[in-house]
Amino acid sequence: MALTIRRYRPETVAAGPSNGWRGSQLVIDLTQLKAHLEARMHIRVHVELVPPESGRVVRDIRDLWQVRAKLAPAALLPYALPGQPQDGRGSGVTIVVERLALCISGEGAGNVTPCMLPMGDPSLPLSDHWLLEVAPAIGPAWDESDEVRMKTALAEWMQAAIPGLQPPPGCVQEETWQEPAPTASRHPERPAIGHCYLVQSQGSFRRTFFQGSPCDTLRPTVVSPLVIMDGALVSNNYVVCANRNPTYFHAENPLLRGLLQRHGQDLQMASVVLFTAPGDEAAKRATAAEVAQIARSQCWDAAVVTKEGGGNTTVDLMLLVGALEAEGISAVGMVNESAGPQGDQPPLVVHHPAADALVSTGNVEAVWPGGTDASGGALTAWIAGATSLLGAGQWGCVED
Amino acid sequence: MRLVHYLNQFFGQVGGEEAADTAILVRAGAVGPARAVAAALGNAGEVVATVIAGDNWVNADLEARAQLICDAVMEHSPDVVLAGPAFGAGRYGVAVGEVVRQLTARGCIAVGAMAPDNPARALYASRGYLVPCDPSVRGMSAALSDMMRLAIALHRGEAVTHDRFAYYPRGRRIMLRHNAPAAERVIALAVAKARGGTYRTEIPRRASLEWVAAPPVASLADTIVVLATDGGVVPCGNPDRIEASMATKWGRYPWEALTCLEISHGGYDRRFAQEDPCRVLPWDGLEHWRAVGVIGGVFPYWYTTAGNATAPSVCEAMAAQILSDIEAIRGQVGVLLTST
Lengths: 400, 340
Known about the structure:
The complex is a heterodimer.
Chain A: E1 2-8, E2 12-15, E3 20-22, E4 25-28, H1 30-41, E5 45-50, E6 57-72, E7 92-105, E8 115-118, E9 130-136, H2 144-161, E10 172-178, E11 192-199, E12 207-210, E13 213-214, E14 221-223, H3 225-229, E15 233-236, H4 247-251, H5 254-262, E16 268-276, H6 281-297, E17 302-306, H7 311-326, E18 330-337, E19 358-363, E20 367-372, E21 378-380, E22 395-399
Chain B: E1 2-8, E2 25-28, H1 33-41, E3 46-53, H2 55-60, H3 62-74, E4 80-83, H4 90-105, E5 109-114, H5 119-124, E6 129-132, H6 140-156, E7 173-177, H7 182-194, E8 224-229, E9 233-235, E10 251-254, E11 261-263, H8 271-275, H9 283-291, E12 297-304, H10 312-326, E13 333-338
Parallel strand pairs in B: 1-3, 1-4, 4-5, 5-6, 8-12, 8-13
Antiparallel strand pairs in B: 2-3, 9-11, 10-12
């Protein structure tokens, strides 16, 4: 299996009368997008293009999407949404538009710790993008099915609008990713490294979808990294900002890209095991053991364990690290910290003795360095990408 | 840059042990080791004053006299303050630690120095910047250099981390922007660990938090039971605005408010609790126990907060406040705490 990603990289993005290119500038017809969404949803939808240099703090973000389309097989939407066909995902050709992110925003309806993005902050992964903000008029009856319908409508718009764009030659790059071959033999200089990929899925507005199905009761599953890079995971839980992954980083997953880029050089990319966090301790222990056994059966030398969520899933991560080490697999974890606004609280609710190799994605309770909100108050790290749990951000914590 | 240096009687050139009771002295400009600091600063700054106090005099009433020293220091509006180095000297070390602690608490940039085995290190390392140094005075030059580097970096607002500066760990976690994204760092860590090479975690393990459970109540039938939850069950409208995540507030509500409830909690699927709040706040079971005489009674209010990404210190503070609130009633009380 091979997946070709064709990357369109505009120098700038602007709104205009029709979708297309003006030299190296990508032009988006916002009126058409707005009309499409309002026709599909029968509600008012605010659509705006926010440039990075605006310095604006975009608020109430419910999800962030990479702008993409599926060229082949054309029957697929760019993201795996419920009720849509899924066969063929992870192969063929996918178009990705860089420097532009779709931002779905809106107050209420599940939005617990609303995410924000200060545009133009060079320390944040997405703040150098143009943000195509889509804000539906969410009423009190807005529920998860409305959210999914709107995301489907957005995916349909991308699928209709993006393939017809004909970028100038200097604005296109193409990369082809091969499915890593199963690890046959151990190589001390190129260890086989797999990814234990925890997605949190806890019901309405706390849910992650894989191949269009809720992950609430997902059993540990071996998944192709190409399938994930081809939009198989859709987040509907980003309404709890700093502790969750938006759809953008599931698709443009920096950890999977990094492992695949180094495959055959200083490591062998093994497989991905997708799993979710059960609610009780016995089930957590059983899941950890099951994932570790899968990793052993796949001949992994090492595992990178990632998670989303707060203290609850730190327990799952730690149990899994312990189980992997017990199977003789070197385990490293990537984890966010909850060390309090001053950093003087214990950073993790639990820390397994075997967890001796952890990377910090930062303290989700920290006051954002130098940041203030519109009223001059301190910003916390509830900022898109700041403490990215899949490692997109450069921030972390160190001992003082 | 304006710098003030705090020294004891010996390094302040007042005298030895016989002068250890010397009260606070303020000298304009640099005295003793502060001269070396002034020379090293050159045109970049000025030692505006040296504040001197005898070790016995400070330690005889530590907090109050350190406060006087700090007042004297602050009169010179310093940008940074150096204290010591105290080397291995116990009384001087305590004085340096306390002065640095108090100045830091006032928002002043203060850097002290003492040897690793100085007993004051354990008392003060987490409460201000203290630089390690040799136990004897032969380490003076290196200590002053390390203290100045750190103080200047703090004054400039630079990122101060252990890989760039020598200071005793303060036990806090500080945000740092690395050169590489976390994904790159974790892959490098995995490769290093799998190859059996050296590697370093970014989150060292700490001692686990431990709490001791209260002893069981002697007789349930004589006990008034208080129902408390971190499941965020609040009256409709959430009158106390209890945060759904990282809560800092708790509420106390009378049972009459049960007629209309909502859930302020961002960490679990609230539908089940909204359908039947007794799943989180088991009022029905408690009432049944009271009716059949298993418990002596039910406290007239329930307590609630949202236990979701809440810092342990905030939890402890809220628990203390709730306990204080409960203590207003007489008799034997037990608390039934439900969690999600």
